[in-house]
Design goal:
The complex is a heterodimer of chains A (113) and B (116). Chain A is built from no helices and 12 strands. Chain A is mostly beta strands. In chain A, the strands form 3 sheets. In chain A, strands 2, 5, 6, 10, 11 and 12 form a 6-stranded mixed beta sheet that branches. Chain A is globular, with a radius of gyration of 14 Å. The termini of chain A are far apart. Chain B is built from no helices and 11 strands. In chain B, strand 4 and strand 5 form a beta hairpin. Classes of the chains: A mainly beta (113), B mainly beta (116). The interface between A and B is medium-sized, with 26 and 28 residues.
Chain lengths: 113, 116
């Protein structure tokens, strides 16, 4: 079945540091890939997405590139801020006919001033 | 659009009590689902629905019931609350069931449930 593996957290960084959160996946067909963010006390919200190989999703300074050859969708940001402290979830939506999206376990990011 | 709304935001129950968590969306979405979120466990799917009148079990359905009589509403019922059901519950919806390239999930703000 489909699966998503994310690096375990928490990831702790100083403000203005470079961020990478690794995400790899296993899926049938040609999935769409997503990153969601969950700020403290809130529900998840879409951060960015990519729908086919080599697509780059971007939003709020975050980027992720759909790499079919390595089945990866790593999240990056060049300079994090304290306000980026949140939990980040990698997810996929398979074209293989499953009704259910698959989420990773989430990676907590803590950014210190 | 209000998006996905959930009520209540917080709830405390005693063991054995029953209650219904409400979820509604105003985006005419086909797919709706319920998750629970526990520390270190990520999101776990409880039940889901691909349209009005159609529901199915997810990963952790025991102790919960759902129904989908309208497109907009997808309530989650706890039949006899247990301390193991202490969690944060999220309702989510998307335009259609899986396979759509634009199938973004929209989440509600969550219900924080404590069972004593």
């Amino acid at each position: 079945g489909d699966s998503v593996t994310q690096m375990e957290g928490p990831v702790t960084l100083s403000e203005e540091a470079f961020l990478t959160i690794n995400c790899t996946y296993t899926a049938t067909g040609y999935p769409s890939l997503f990153w969601y963010v969950q700020y403290p006390g809130e529900g998840l919200q879409l951060l960015l997405k990519a729908t086919k190989a080599d697509d780059k999703g971007s939003n709020k300074g975050f980027e992720a590139t759909y790499r079919k050859e390595t089945t990866s969708f790593h999240l990056e940001k060049g300079s994090v801020q304290v306000s980026d402290s949140a939990v980040y979830f990698c997810a996929l939506d398979s074209s293989g006919g499953s009704y259910i999206p698959t989420f990773g376990r989430g990676t907590s990011l803590i950014v210190h001033p | 659009n209000a998006g996905v709304t959930q009520t209540p935001k917080f709830q405390v129950l005693k063991t054995g009590q029953s209650m219904t968590l409400q979820c509604a969306q105003d985006m005419n979405h086909e797919y709706m689902s319920w998750y629970r979120q526990d520390p270190g466990m990520g999101l776990r799917l409880i039940h889901y629905s691909v349209g009005a009148g159609i529901t199915d079990q997810g990963e952790v359905p025991n102790g919960y019931n759902v129904s989908r009589s309208t497109t907009e509403d997808f309530p989650l019922r706890l039949l006899s609350a247990a301390p193991s059901q202490t969690s944060v519950y999220f309702c989510a919806s998307s335009y259609q069931a899986g396979g759509s390239v634009n199938n973004e999930q929209f989440f509600g703000p969550g219900t924080r449930l404590t069972v004593l």
